[in-house]
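Field: sequence (string)
Field: structure_tokens (string)

Example rows 1 and 2, in order.
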Amino acid sequence: MGSRFYIMPPGAGANDLARAVPTLRAMLLVGASVFVTTLYVLGAVR
């Protein structure tokens, strides 16, 4: 039973999504800030 529960938990999708949202948000924030900084540097150079 334990192994089957580990392979296919009933709430895996929701739990994984809830756990991944903060990480995804942080990655998006970092990516957006790097993108904006790159655009600003390119604009300043140009």
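Row 2 begins here:
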Amino acid sequence: FPHLMLPIAVGAVGLGMISVPLGLALFASVGVDRIGPASAIAVMVQNLAGPMVLIVIQVVITSRTLQLGGTGGPAEAMTADQLTA
């Protein structure tokens, strides 16, 4: 999928540029006594958000494939049109 390289690169650069300032803003907004719990919550949210986003992306891709005529069966049972969908 070479046509997806540019959007993936732009997204990766954007995520890299936003993650550090966002973390610093989070820690600057809480008191010294609450930095530990805030850090733990931030890490937990990051670890849960990644798989949740992947689930949403997979649902969108699967529904679009089925909308274009794809099927949920094995690839060996698909026609040429279903494979290109």
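free_text_note (row 2): The helical segments are 5-28, 35-67, 80-84.
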